């Protein structure tokens, strides 16, 4: 780990017979926001509005993708949507999440380098997190037994988000169900929304795109996920298009006694806000946090202010 927080991997002979090599993984000093992503075409404004509503109503989100797809970047950007009075607790191996939020507690794992000093794993930190009464529990990436504890937290009423390394959403579910994660099928159903992001070629360039968003409707007796895809990326048009209506809106409506039509109107209002922010270039982290905070307090006032350029 470099002093700046960048990750470095060094390999030397005889492990690397053709000579030494190194990789430096740098993160953005100024985090990329969802408004940046809308402007870059990574995600659509209506998909952002949908994910925002899901977070507001306590739906858990799992971001899926291969190495270098932008999973953590998207996770970081999503956390700006969390309401300002909620407590966010994040757990990471390496500090990558960087958000503007008053009630954010960041925890880091600690591998032991000394005899007699034990490791502090994500599993350990999740146990600590449950005593901190967070509203949102966020794990940078799940790889092993910490997945079971995270989903236990989901089952006890905490909301949250995480990322998992997998090529497809179906592969991600299989990883959750099998060793070393071993999340029971009933708990896997608490991963309410899966978002798949990957690097694709558009116009001769490699870019990052959210290619699928699916609602998890549970696990069948045969162990297969029942996925309801609501957004898919169209490679010919380079557009993330809605292909089905959300079923979670119906679930939220019944659980929270909010008419479905009211939820749809709220989605449209949030989509309008995101589109306006993108068109006016309101994309820096502090500006995005300021607008989203105001929206939670006064939706119409925030929309009017952005429309007039008076943020």
Automatic annotation (TrEMBL):
Stretches assigned to the AAA+ ATPase domain: 57-187
Coiled coil stretches, renumbered: none
Protein's recorded name: Type II secretion system protein E
Family the entry assigns: Belongs to the GSP E family.
GO molecular function: ATP hydrolysis activity
Domain of life, per lineage: Archaea
Family annotation (Pfam families): T2SSE
The species this protein was found in: Pyrobaculum arsenaticum (strain DSM 13514 / JCM 11321 / PZ6)
């Amino acid at each position: 780990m470099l002093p700046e927080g960048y990750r470095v991997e060094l390999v030397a002979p005889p492990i690397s017979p053709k000579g030494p090599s190194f990789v430096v993984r740098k993160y953005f000093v100024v985090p990329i926001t969802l408004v940046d992503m809308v402007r870059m075409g990574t995600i659509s404004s209506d998909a952002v509005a949908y994910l925002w509503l899901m977070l507001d109503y306590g739906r858990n989100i799992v971001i899926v993708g291969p190495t270098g797809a932008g999973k953590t970047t998207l996770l970081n950007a999503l956390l700006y949507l969390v309401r300002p009075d909620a407590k966010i607790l994040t757990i990471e191996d390496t500090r990558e999440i960087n958000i503007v939020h008053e009630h954010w507690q960041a925890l880091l794992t600690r591998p032991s380098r000394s005899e007699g000093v034990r490791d502090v794993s994500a599993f350990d930190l999740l146990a600590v997190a449950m005593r901190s009464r967070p509203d949102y529990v966020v794990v940078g990436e799940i790889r092993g037994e910490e997945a079971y504890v995270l989903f236990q937290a989901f089952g006890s009423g905490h909301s949250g988000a995480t990322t998992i390394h997998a090529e497809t959403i179906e592969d991600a579910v299989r990883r959750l169900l099998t060793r070393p994660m071993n999340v029971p099928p009933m708990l896997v159903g608490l991963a309410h929304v899966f978002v798949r992001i990957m690097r694709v070629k558009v116009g001769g360039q490699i870019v990052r795109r959210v290619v699928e968003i699916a609602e998890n409707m549970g696990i069948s007796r045969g162990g297969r996920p029942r996925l309801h895809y609501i957004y898919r990326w169209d490679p010919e048009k380079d557009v993330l298009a809605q292909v089905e209506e959300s079923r979670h809106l119906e679930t939220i409506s019944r659980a929270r006694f909010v008419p479905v039509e009211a939820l749809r109107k709220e989605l449209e209002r949030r989509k309008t806000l995101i589109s306006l922010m993108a068109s006016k270039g309101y994309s820096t982290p502090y500006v995005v946090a300021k607008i989203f905070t105001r929206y939670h307090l006064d939706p119409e006032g925030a929309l009017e202010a952005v429309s007039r350029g008076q943020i």
